[in-house]
Amino acid sequence: MPTGVALRAVRAQLFDAAERVLLRDGPSGLTSRAVTTEADCAKGVLHRHFDDFDGFLAEFVLDRIEKLDEKGLREAAGTGTVVDNLTTALTAVFESVAVAIVPLVIFRDELRARLRREWPAGVPVLTQAAVMIGGYLKAERDLGRVAEGADVETLAATLIGATHLLYADRTAPAPEIAQVRKVVETVIGT
Fold it and tell me: Is the model's pTM score more than 0.70?
């Protein structure tokens, strides 16, 4: 891209490019050059907006966490069935960039250290998904649609872990909805 040509929404353009590279090429293919090539801009553009590549990656991960639809799931409380709502939410989380972010965070020490400043525990995207699911389950428990004594935090973490195992191999086809539903039914005890 020629110098002097303005880019609109540079951060969003770079984050979207990073997501496409991460999904297509995995964590090892996610380089600053790959991102700027995918975004169709000069490499210097990334470095004008971020201190370094790990700083870019940390903001990318936090941006993708914000995109989890926590509000939509909470608003589903009391509607449909708990199993259907959870199956839909878990499928949305794991068919997003979430599964690809996990190894990126695990294998980049500097990225993980930067994320710890804002996200002190767990793998950020999975931890936020567990918080989202836990909040939904609490709302359903309050409505009497989940067992009164249910430990919703443990249920949420179990749902995230079990569903992550279904989606962990990014090179394999995505699991069938019926497989996700079976995990939800088993964990929730329906």
Answer: yes
